[in-house]
Structure formats: structure tokens, C-alpha cells
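Job type: complex structure
Entries:
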Amino acid sequence: MRRTGADLDRLAETESIFALANGWVGWRGTLDEGEPYGMPGSYLNGFHERRKLDYPEGGYAFPEASDTVVSAPNAALIRLWVNGEPLDIRTGTLRTHERVLDLRAGVLRRDTEWISPGGHGVRIRSTRLVSLPRRPVAAVRYEVEPLDGPVELRVCSDLLANENVPQRSDDPRAATVVQDPLTAEARRSDGLDGVLVHRTDRSAQRVAVAVAHLVDAPAVVAVDGDCTPDRLRLTLTGPLAPGERVRLTKFAAYECAPVDGTPPDELADLVVAEAAAARADGFDTLLAAQRAALDAAWRTADVELDGDPELQQAVRFAIFHLLQAGRPDGDRTIAAKGLTGNGYDGHVLWDTEGYVLPVLTYLAPEVARSALRWRHAHLPEARERAAELRLAGATFPWRTIGGRECSGYWPAATAGLHVNADIADAVLRYVAATGDTRFLAGPGLELLVETARLWHRFGHRSDDGAFHLFGVTGPDEYSALADDNVFTNLMARRNLRGAADAAERCPEAAAALGVDAAEVAAWRAAADAMAVPYDHERGVHQQSAGFTAQPEWDFANTGEDDYPLLLHHPYLELYRRQVVKQADLVLAMLRCPGEFTAEQKARNVAYYQPRTVRDSSLSAAPQAVLAAEVGHLDLAYDLFAESVLQDLADLGDKTADGLHLASLAGAWLALVQGFGGMRDDQGVLSFDPRLPRRIDRLAFHLRWRGHRLRVTLTAGEARYELPDAGPEATVEVWHHGERLRVGVAPVTRPMPPVPDAGPEPPCPPGRRPPRRA
Amino acid sequence: MRRTGADLDRLAETESIFALANGWVGWRGTLDEGEPYGMPGSYLNGFHERRKLDYPEGGYAFPEASDTVVSAPNAALIRLWVNGEPLDIRTGTLRTHERVLDLRAGVLRRDTEWISPGGHGVRIRSTRLVSLPRRPVAAVRYEVEPLDGPVELRVCSDLLANENVPQRSDDPRAATVVQDPLTAEARRSDGLDGVLVHRTDRSAQRVAVAVAHLVDAPAVVAVDGDCTPDRLRLTLTGPLAPGERVRLTKFAAYECAPVDGTPPDELADLVVAEAAAARADGFDTLLAAQRAALDAAWRTADVELDGDPELQQAVRFAIFHLLQAGRPDGDRTIAAKGLTGNGYDGHVLWDTEGYVLPVLTYLAPEVARSALRWRHAHLPEARERAAELRLAGATFPWRTIGGRECSGYWPAATAGLHVNADIADAVLRYVAATGDTRFLAGPGLELLVETARLWHRFGHRSDDGAFHLFGVTGPDEYSALADDNVFTNLMARRNLRGAADAAERCPEAAAALGVDAAEVAAWRAAADAMAVPYDHERGVHQQSAGFTAQPEWDFANTGEDDYPLLLHHPYLELYRRQVVKQADLVLAMLRCPGEFTAEQKARNVAYYQPRTVRDSSLSAAPQAVLAAEVGHLDLAYDLFAESVLQDLADLGDKTADGLHLASLAGAWLALVQGFGGMRDDQGVLSFDPRLPRRIDRLAFHLRWRGHRLRVTLTAGEARYELPDAGPEATVEVWHHGERLRVGVAPVTRPMPPVPDAGPEPPCPPGRRPPRRA
């Protein structure tokens, strides 16, 4: 991923795209010299401050405070002065300026030739990495050399706390920035090394960042250290002649802990040791380890898409960011923007279980497990919240960092109870793909049981015996507080049955949670009786009860500038009309495919496609999958393109705040579940592949029950194999309804012709994604 | 209305009960000496500040700012020091302390004998009034005399701006207090007179208050003036021997204007002249005029209720506060708390048209007209709001002072579109009662037309031709965003038909508003097709579509401390259950009685009574009326008592913030529409009287088409007469289905026996109003 030139108007967007992370530390792709910047950010997974929420009219159980991500001290900064003039690409002459995100090496490289306003030229090259194998470590190697004549240099390597972060917009989806969130607790500076320890006020978290430097410079260059509570600086000064070079390598280590946990000095010792160890090993060792880790990851994660080089590259970009967003160890999850920006206040939303984990489960199942363990670690808060809401079991937050509900608009949040079923679904999916019975019997079961209890309590038996979920908000945020949202109801059914199955599979663990046969039977009965609103006249499912009787949206009087609708129309209008922000009923057909006949799917796609405006980046991918399933392959491909280009093309004008990880994950779903036709909701792995014209060959891999399954699709045939497996090992997969046993030897099957799906259902006027010729 | 003793725990409540107002100036019943206080307040109708609203998650068309009532400078203060010790009823010995709100004289009298901690006794008598006939004028006469021996007195008469107002609670229904809202612009002080001029910052309103004093004291008493930007003080000091007396009379005049309207000096001149004129006339003249004005008002407004002296007094208290809340001249409305407190931020809510005007229309129709003119004056803001909401016509604010929407929680506000129909209903009711065709052809028609346009645009024709109003919130705030709320739909029908009738009656005025025959026909068609959800199985109307299919509230697990439910349960639970905060379907039966059969009314009362928790003070009165109509007269009487005692018994623990004018109005409705059985929705005046056992005799008056109709009910007979009419004049009234022509000579008819209504429907457990034995 390469960008050339200054591109000053898109700094923040570029910072998101060039962000580096390892699931623990995240550095936005700011310039080494810090300025100009769009929105600087250096994050630690889970590190946040709390801020009070004020309501014009409050209400019971409205959260009183919200978590908001704040930057940890930024160790990426290296500033440069050339003959007294600061390197700033807005001044002087930028002869060349290129930045490359190397998706295989896992580094961000920069190569700049700059002539200062005074006429002194330098070349700067830097390489930055956030170490995948070494959790606390990030590093940058920075080189300067004169271009034409001798120069006087000053190079400052900074570790900077409380970096200024601009408040970007009034858009409710953007972040609320806490200024100066960190209070200095301790600092040490010793020659080339140093450490800063800070804490947050209200969330009571402590963060320590250490830096260790290596200097490779002519002897005349002087080295000097300087330390204030919020800044640790190493300065190199001196003349540099043509042919000479200054190379500064900085190794940083990040840790955080609760204030009442590790004391400041101890935390400082920890990161000092980590930074020193990284320096002892050297930058080249970090590079090699980074490459090795990515090589291993890409073996499973890579997708080959022949026939569309732009999207091939975009898919790899998407997967790269998914891979670096999470951690395989511990219990950390993945926020909606990962560690790439402060959008949505850095919150974790249902995007994680709804979009990201359904990919990582097959590419990096340990990361999926870590994220589910994080949910499990926050069961106490979810139980408290359920009690506060006068419900049962657990109610997970709609948005959070620290585990407590942080949403300030309950109809789109608290009422979005489906997040609980999404978590249960992710558990079931993870267990099905990995066979991880230990996880199932432990955190998995507890998550399933507590969410099942929620649904059982929340539901209502009507006179006719049907089990209803009234007054909830489904995925589509242009509806709210509706009855019997099909997505929610079917996911709750899956949740209830999954909990019942798991309880019977792990009877002792279930008993320890107080589950008895009567409770299991009650769950099954509720699931069996679940209401699923269907409009018999129109032959389509209703997104929620009554949906198809609502007025239509007035698309004829809706202009291009009216999108996203939520910024130009009141909820009063949006909620009561048949206008859909994002796949909802369509997502239900993706998650619970067995609940719909093929004919229903085709009719539902035809009905909801023209009513779905895709004002959410979560929409295109599921729509792509279902369009592919019902045979509209060109439409599916264009929707896939929208999903995968969300950030590279900044389609929503929001990439500046961080990447849309769910949309990037959706790109993989569109390929693998859409064109690969992969489904696994019944615990078996099936493929109904069908390729659009634009794809000559599509190859991808899945981790399934400990194996690496490779699937290669061309217009003519589908090929299944376990390239790493021993001669005896096989897995069962289904290909268009035929059961195959697949081992190390490839099994091939012809691709059936795609049946004629009839005319493509229109998108809302002006909203069709561009046709990729 | 008399209260004896200090009652320090209920100061704020007492201040509300003893508030004086004339629809323009309002003084809370604070003590003359200002302290101790509960919540001081001196208000001008419409005088407010704007404050920014912050939302954790904003949305399109969420109001960015809100009006909030602020106190005008307080001229009621007279402080006293006795031998250097301040008069404070919390100190020394309070030998006697009595305050009387004289409902006939329209004054608040105080009589206190106090012994200072140093043992010096004084008697203080004061009389306070806010002049009904003289809009800007309020006055207080204050007398001190020694009790036993000589005393050294200091009496300070203050006019105080930016008086400290405590923030009373976190309850969302309380006020948000703006501290120091007034900026001084000008002041003058001259001997016994003075004036302060201030302005607000953001609402840009200017207020001027002048005081003029009369001093009647022994010659040895010295008089001194003092003036700072926020305080104007007149001080009397000197010795007072037994038998001597200091009498200080203060005349105050209040005006306000937009900052870009009358300049400060001009406004000052205005109030100085008013205060001086009042002084020239003298306090006794003000008293006499006050008495005369009230005598005239009581002739129509008085209700005689024999058999229950406590409630007789309470009813007169209620009516007194209704009479002083509004003004007959100009275009001023009546806020939910009138001018008695800052609850609900001093906002005007639908309480005005829904409860207060349906009383004042018959007692003081000029006041009702003034309030409707206020709505009309704010049509521009309502049109703008409709455009912002992408609707048509006018959308009146849910809560406001200055005319713009100020609500911070849209599901209970913006979605409560019924306020528009309530305004239309008040117009129709006013025109029917008065025959004021000039008003109809002017402001009335425009209000009717613009609200009809709203409904026509908002509604949706379903496939079966029915006209639906989806996604609205009816009166019951424990439901929201429901479809086809019966109250809203029937009131919208009335609105549409009323607009159509009026347009046909005033063709030229209608044409000037762009109304043509097609539009009128469209209104009628929409009205005719209006959906009215009915549960055929249960034989009851559904409050909104699907209501009777919702889960029931779990009353078995709801304790006494759980009320009001909104402070202890999330909307998520409240909204989706069959639990009703306040009369909604029942109110529909009161407002649109012709839309229901007698059998339906009885079944609906039986159905909704046990599901209505009356967490709103708006509920008891309509429930009383319908309980009376269907024959549960004891229940009706107890509900009437709840309504009339709302503030005197502080039933909702909210009287401190101001009186519940809607509930006080409801008391009259309970008597006249409940036991009198008065209905007028069809443009004719009918009575189906039925008295509960507790009432021996009930007499009341109505202004109807320019006449004063007196109705006297006893167990045996109903008597109708026009006591003031000439020999020829008659009006048509109906008595239990019989048409009568009533003139100056009484017409009597027997009271038919009350049919057996069967067992009384229960209230929710623990929620029955106490039985009045």
C-alpha cells in the first residue's frame, strides 16, 4: 500500500490507512516529525478515560459516564531541524515523498527528499513497526543524510504525553476528545533511555512507556537528553557532510495497569526492561520476527483474487488490518476502529462479534477466542446491567471500552439487545470451527447461558403461544423499538438452542451455573415458539412486525446531499418508514440461512434491496453475500467492492477517525460467504460457490477443526484441499449439497451453472454502487 | 387557605401554594424577609433565558438550546433587624406565625409575633398582592410594632436581581437553574423610589422593575437609600416604642421587552410611572380593585360543593390559581406551573390546551383566547419546525417558553404530535362556547388549517384504505413511538374535520391561506378513513395498535417504592408492556365521547383502570370523569379528590417546583364533566349529571355563548338557569338526552337513578386513591 506526495487534505485518512498495531499497541500513521497531522494517536487496547454524560432529559439507567479512548504517550515522534529550519512538508520543497505500508513485512516505510526554505536538502528514510510477536514493543528506525551539501542537523526523538488531539467534527459518530487526559506520576531519563509513567483521573489506569535508543552518527554529533513530566526528548545535534548519515533507532515498550495494580516504579521497570531487550536484539531482529509472524499469518489469511488487481490489493489491505487488530493471547477484544483511530470514542460495538469474529474465527481462531474471553471477563458488568434493567442473565453493553454500557441514546443502544445474541453466535461459531470444547465448557457456556436467560426473561408468550420480543432495535438503525425484529428473534432462537445444546453437552459445567433440565426445556420451548413476522400477501419476511405496512420513503424527493439520511431527517420520519439504513433482514438470512427457503431469500432480497440505503458501512457486505446467493453476481461484486474500498476510497468520509474494521471484515465475508458460498451455521462446513464474471480465480483458506483448508475456485471448478495435512487427515465439507471428504490431495468438483435470477433488484435511486466494468 | 407555624420542612411547597400572580407577574409565597426559603422566584410570563443542550449522542433536529425560566428582580423582599438581630423564624421564639391566602380578596396575609434571641418582641403584619386589574403592578404593605418593650429597628426593603436559586434535584422533571442570569443595564435611585434594568444574555430580553415606597413611621426613624447594580435598598432605622408602628408600603411595577425593542431608559420610565401611579392611588385602592376583579371572576368561577368541606375549599383553591395564572388581554399563555414555580423549566406543555383551557374556556374565555393567540403568535416557529422535521403545516413544540422546541428527549416530545391536535381542539372548543367568529376567521382558522396540514402529510394510507399515524407518542408516556394511538388518531380526526368545517365557514380567510376544495376534501377523507385500533377479542380499544398484545406489567413484584415507575425502571421495560402512566385511551373517551358506545366506554374503563398507575398528575381527572360516566361514582369521587389535592397534599412530592395547574384544572373537569356530565364536543352543551354519595349539592357556572349558565345538582334534581339574562334570552342545553331551553327562570329536571355499573374495576395494586369515607 503506497502513497506518494504530501496529500495535505487527507492527512487524517492516511494516518488511519497507515496505522500499525499488534492488537495491544497501535500507532496511527502520522509523520515521524509529528506535524502536519490530521489526528495523532497512539493507543493501547483498553486504555481509556471516563467522562460524564449529560442529558437534557435523563432517564432511569441512562449511563452516567462513558469510556473514551485516549492516547498513550506517543513514542513514534522524531523531529528534525535542518540548519535551524524544522522539517515540515508544508514548507520548502518536497522533492520526493513516498510512504509504503508493507503488508508482508508489517512495517511502514517512508522516503522523503526535502529542501528546506533556506535551500538545504536532506533525505529521510524511516521504518516503523509495531511488533506482532512482542506485545509491548514498537520501534522506528530513522535515517537522515544530506542531499547536496553539508547541513547542520538537529534530530529530536520524543516521547510525548498529552499530545494535542483536535476535535474533528460535530458528527455524533465521531469521538469526544478529552484534552490532557494523563497525569504524570513518574519519569526517568538516563542517557539514551527513559520512561514516563502517567495515570488517568477517572478510569484510574496507569500507563508506562519506555524508550531505548541506538545512535549511529558521526562522532561530531552531540547527544543530549531532556525530560519533563510530559515529554522525554533525546537530541542529536551536529554537522553532517555529504556521504555521512545519522541513523537513530528507537525502541519503545508500552504497558498499562489499573492504578491500584502495579505501582508506578514497577510498571516503569517492566517497560524499561522490554525496551532494553528489544534494543539488545536489534531492529533487524524485530524486522525478521515481524516477517516470520506475518508469513505464518498470511499462509491462512491470504486471499487470491485474480482478475481485479485493485481489489486484490484492497482485500490484502483489509486482511492485514484485521490481523493486526487483535491479539491471540489473553483476553483483549477489537474495537470498531481497532487501534487505528478514536472514532466511536474507541468503543467496542457489535461489529466485533457480528463482522470481525466471523472472519477471524477462520483465519486466526486464537484471536477470536481472546475477544470472547474479553466478553466473558466483563460478565460481571453485564450481569449488573441486566439487573439494573430489571432483566435476567446478562445484558452486554452496546458500546464500551471498560465493560460498562456507554451509550447515550438508548433506543439505538440499550434496545439493541441483539448484541447479546451476536456474542452467543460468535461463541457457537468459534466452537464449531475449532472444536474447542475446553472453551465451550468454560467461558463459552457461561456466555451462552447468561444470554439465553436474558432472552427467556425478555420474551413474551402471546395468547396464541408464540414467543415475542417486543420493543427492540435490530441492526437497522433507521428503525427502533420494533416488535419481533426477525434478525433479533432468529438470533435469539439460535442463542437459546445453542445454550440448550451446550448445557446438555457440558452437564457438570451447566449444573454449576444453576442450569437444570427445566430451564433447558424452557429455552427450547421459547426458541421453538419464536415469532417470525411474515407478510403473506407480499411473500416476504417483515424486518419487524408491521414493517411492510409502513409508508415508503420518499426517494423521489431525496437528493444526493440528503445522505446519510440520519444527518438530514429526523428519526421521527426515519423510524416509521420502510427505509433501511443497513442490512437487517438480509443479515438474518446470512446468519441464519436455514430459517429461509431459497425462494424466500430471493423475494426478500428483491424487497429489501431497493429500500436499503447503505448509510452504514456494515451494510454492503451482507447484501453482497445474499445477492450472490440468490444469483445477482454483478450486484454482489459491486457491493463487495464497496465494502473492501470503504476506507481506501474513504467512501463514508469517516476514515479519518479510524478504519471500519467491520466493513473490511465484510469484504472477506463477501468473497468467502458470497462467492465461495461458505456456510457453517449448522456446525458443518458447506460451500455453494458461484463466481462473478470479474473473478477469474478466487482462492482462500479457512482454519477448520485444526486444519488449514484451501479452496480454489475458477469458472470451471472448485478445488478443496488440506495442503498441510498428513495422509490420513480429512475434513468433511459440502459442495453444492454433495458431501466431500477432503484431505491433502485436492478434491475438485465442477461449478454448477448459476441459475437465472431474473432482473437485478434496484438499489434506492442514486445509491447503486458503481458498476465495476 | 391558611397555614400556621413555621413548617420549615415544607417551605418550597408552601411558597407554591401561596404564590400570587396575575398572568403576567408571579411572586412565589416566600416570606417577606426572604429567608429561610425553599426556592425563591418572581416571574414574568415569558421571561426566560436560553441554555445550550448537550447530548451524549445528538441527532438531526434535536434542539440545540432550551428556554428556561429565570426570576425577574424580586421586589417582594422586606428584611427586618430587631436590635441588630435579623428576623429569622428559625431563631428566637416564634410566638405566632400565620399566613392566609385570601381567595376572595386576592392577597396573601401574614401575621407573626417573634421574640428575638436577645428577647425583643415584635409583631409583623404584611399584606401582599399581585394586581389582577393592573398588569405590571404588585405591592406589599408591611407593618412592625413592638410587642412588649421598646426596640431598635432596621427595616430594609429590597429589590434584588440574581437572587440565589437552589438546584433542587436530579429529577428530570425539575428545573435546570441558570445562576446569575441577569446583567445589569441601568439603575436609578431617588429617595423612596428606584428602578433596576437588566437583560438576559442569550434570549436577549430586557426587564425593568421599579419600586415606589410609602413610609408611615415615627419621625425619629431615618430613611436611607442604597443602590448597586443588582440591589436597590431602602432602609429605615430608628427606635420604636410600644404603641408606635412602622408601616412600609412598597409598590412595584414589572415590564420586559426584547433587547432590540424598548431601550433601557424608556423601559425604566415606563415602570417608574406605573409604580408611582400605583402609589398615588394607594394600597387600599389596589385592594379594592383586586376584590372587585375577583368578585367578578368568582361569579362565574365559583363551584359550590356541599358535603365535603375539605374538598370545597380545595376546589376554590384550585380555581383561584387557575384564575390568576392567565391574562385576558394580549397573547400570553399559561405554563405548566403557571407563574408559581420553575418546574419543567417554566415550560408550556400540552397541559395548557389539554387541561387548563378546557376549563378557562367556560370560566374566563378571554384568557383562553389570549393563550390561543399566543400559539398563533408562534406559528412561524411551528412552521419552521415542521419544515425542519420534513413535515407540512405547523408542528408546535412539546415544551417551550419562547416558541421553539425545547425538548431534549424526542420519543416523548417530538413524537408527541398530539399537542397539535390539542391546540386545534382548544380552538374548536373555544369557538363553540363563545361563538367568537372573528377569532375563528383569524387566528383560529390558521391554527386549524396548519395543524390539519400536518396530519394530512404525516398520515399514511395502507392498502386497505385506512389512514394511519405511525410512530407517534400519545399522552401515556410509558409508551412511545407507537402506531395509531387512538387518542392521537381521534384528535387528529377532530382536527381535520374541524379545519374542514372552519374553512367552509370562512371561505375567504381559507382561500387566503391557500386552502381549496380539494384540500378540504382530502382532510375529510383522511378523517373518515382514520384507523382506530380495536381488539375484537377483548372487546376493547387498543391504546395503540398492538397494545393489548403486549406483556402485562409485573405488579406482583412492584413495590410501593417503585413508583413513579420511570425513576426505577427503564423505558425498555415500560414501553413494551401494558402499563399506562396516565389516561390516554381514557382521555380519548373524554375528548371524543361520540366515538365510543356506552358499552365500549364501560369495557375500556374496566380494562385500562387496572393498568394505569397514575404516575402523572394528569391522569386522575380524566379517569374520574370516565369512572363517573360509566357509573363508578365512588371511584370517580376518590379520583377527583386526588386531582384536587395534588398540591395541597403534595401527592406527587413535586409541589415545591410549582403548582400542577393541569391537575387543578382537572378537578373542575372531574366535577363538571364527571358529576355534571357536561359534554360539548359536538357544539352543543349537554349534561348527564350523576352525583356521588359524598356530594349533597353541586353548583357551578359556565359561560356559554355570552351567557352565564348556572347548574345546580342535588340527589333529586338538576336545575339550569341563566341568572343574569334578560327575559327573552335562552340557551339550549341537553339533560340526559332531553333538549331544554334555559333562560332566567330555572328549569329543573329529575336526576335519573344511576344504573348499576357492576363491580368497580380495580386500580393497580396499592394504587387506589384513598376512599373518602
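Summary: The CA atoms of residues 418 and 488 of chain A lie 5 Å apart. Chain A touches chain B through 50 residues (CB under 8 Å).
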